[in-house]
Amino acid sequence: MTMALPSGGLLAASDSNALKDFINLICEPHWFFIISCAGLGVFLAGYRTLTKPAVAWIALVVFTLAYVLSALDPDFRSIIVKPDNVPITIMMYLVGFFLWLAFRQAAVNDEKMASGRPLTEAGSDDKVLVWPDLVYIELIALVFCTVALMVWTVILRAPLEQPADPSVAPNPAKAPWYFLGLQELLVYFDPWIAGVLLPGLIVVGLIAIPYMDKNPRGNGYYTFVERRFAITTFMVGFVILWVVLIVFGTFLRGPNWNFFGPYEYWDPHRPAALVNINLAQIFWVQMLGRGIPTEGFAFIPHYVIRELPGIVILVFYFLVLPGILRRTVFNRMGNQMGAVRYHLMAQLFLWMAFVPIKMVLRWTLNFKYFVAITEFFLNF
Amino acid sequence: MATKELVTKVWIEDGCIVCDACETSSPTVFEVTDDTCIIRPEALSAEFTKPLTDSIVEAAEECPVDVIKFDTVAGEAPDAPAGAPADPAEASVEKAPAAAAAKPAPVVEAKAPEKKPAAAVAGDPDPAIQSLLRAATSRGGAAAILAPDEGSAPAVKALQSTPSKDLPPDARQARIMAGTKKASEEGGVSRRGVLAGSACGVGWLALGGTTAVSGLAFQRFMMPNVLEEPDPKVRVGPADVYSSMNPGEVNEETKPDGFWIIRNEGSIAALNIICTHLGCIPNWLPNDRKFKCPCHGSGFYPDGINFEGPAPRPLERFRIMLVDGIVTVDRSKKFQYEKGEWDNPDSYVEV
């Protein structure tokens, strides 16, 4: 592993190496994922404090400093200077900024609400004129975007490669940056689920939000305290399952689609043993100590018996769990929404939760499928 | 001979602009009312209009919107009904030009051929024509003409053998209608039905043909202009090159042809390089002794069995055989493990 040392002398060489090793360690996928989720949880729990301008400035400076220092590492730098990955840097800053902006206003409002003062939006006029207010803003935004894109196209060369060879695939072969999250899903789910069903559910679910969520709170003003569940769910879906997965695919996925730490050399020959196992294997072989069933029973084909534990788990997860949740955690919400809305929401919610569940199981247990009826491409 | 056309029927079509021109030319025939022009009732008979032929034609020519229409019958029309012999009218018509030619009368010389037949007809009605016209213009006239009974005039009876083109318009129309009605009553194929049906058929055929041809053109447009289809059979060298490999070893030299030659215990096989997950090209990692896909991380053992990553089934094998001691791979035939096809003797070559 080659390493360029920080020439600025901020950190001694050994310290810097130890720090890099530590960061590489916590960037193991499950740690990275858990830390991301924990970070989001801390942010949502302490948003009133953490969005104070002073804290936000400190966070911005610390992040930028860490990013710049990381760029001294040749492996990290080779990632971020790729023309393909320039949007990633922009994305991280923009997502951070807009998250702060929204939650800052929510924090201010929530404090006002707690002390009984009128909200920020209370005095403002409901109506804003399209002309000139909106059109001027749009014009200025248009000019800035055009200029930025032109400068970008002039400065950065298109990342063209040699002519395509049908017998050679780039290693790693990465999707465009905005699809890296979807490409990550393809590792854990069958193509028709990761490529068709889950993106379809994302789109349909986003469309369905206004029909499922009739709660008028939060309409027209920023708040978090009144819409904790809705905003938290959206934040998990957007920040964790979309943005973090893009960062994942950019910084942590290397040759052979193996995981690499951000400061780790992308060695295509690095051995990595990842033998997947299905739930049928765990249940029949490891727990019961017998072979996987290969014989059917009466009219039941053998693959149904083989996958019975997974089928039971999935039926419980998707069909029984919504009812249990309605009687416990989602009791109040279920009564407010009504049966149809509630069950629609529950299905979308459980599908969303299914993604990180399978990802974490894969990283920790090399778990592949709950139900693996490969005969019919029915793998969950 | 002169074939002076005589007006037998005059009528006004839609579009009269009430300009009074026709009434000025022929006041006994036309009457201009407040909003249109009508034919005076007495002018509805052929006997009345024939002598007025010149003024009616003049009125028709002068009409600025050309709505005045008239039927004419040739001056020798009395001839038409099957040559009823020695009609007086015929005689007079026939004779008139002759007389004009024979007797040079300086004063009327030029006009005589024109005027005389009209005058003769008007002044001396031909009974045959009269009976014919009476039958044709009265109510039910067409039927009377088409189906004459014993009491019908000889001229009417004679109409039966008259060609359609020589018939007066009413009779011609009635004959066509009667023929059509007869055909349709008999359940036969009418001329109109045949024409309409065939025109319709031709139209639909043309539409369908145009659609089909443009569809084919579109399909052709979607196809590549050059279709490179290399020979599915590839000769990859003598068998001893591969039999000398160790079991579990992979020969990558044939990767550009789309397969690896792998060495199993006692046999060699050709492994398709297309990943069974989403079609990327995996790499052979000699250190790990596995195929690893760079797109989503699918891993395969040296024999092609999937064991890591998302690939749902093993890599496919191609047909492989020995031809004159040369290992030949046929890429047009695949063998899938999950279907139990790797036991097929075509899927491997024993070495």
The span between the termini of chain A is 38 Å
Tell me, what is the CATH class of the largest domain in chain B?
Alpha Beta
* End-to-end Cα distance of chain B: 112 Å
Sequence of secondary-structure elements of chain A: HHHHHHHHHHHHHHHEE
Strand order of the largest sheet of chain A: 1-2
Helix content range of chain A: 55-70%
Instruction: Tell me the count of domains of chain A.
Output: 2
Strand content of chain B: 15-25%
* Strands of chain A, count: 2
Largest contact between chains: A-B, 33 and 28 residues
Order of helices and strands of chain B: EHEEHHEHHHHHHHEHEEEEEEEEEE
Mean pLDDT of chain B: 77
- In terms of quaternary structure, the protein is heterodimer
Overall, the morphology of chain B is rod-shaped
Structural class of chain B: alpha+beta
Share of helical residues of chain B: 25-40%
Q: Into how many domains do the coordinates of chain B divide?
A: 2
Largest sheet of chain B: 7 strands, antiparallel
**SS elements, strand count of chain B:** 15
How many DSSP helices of chain B? 11
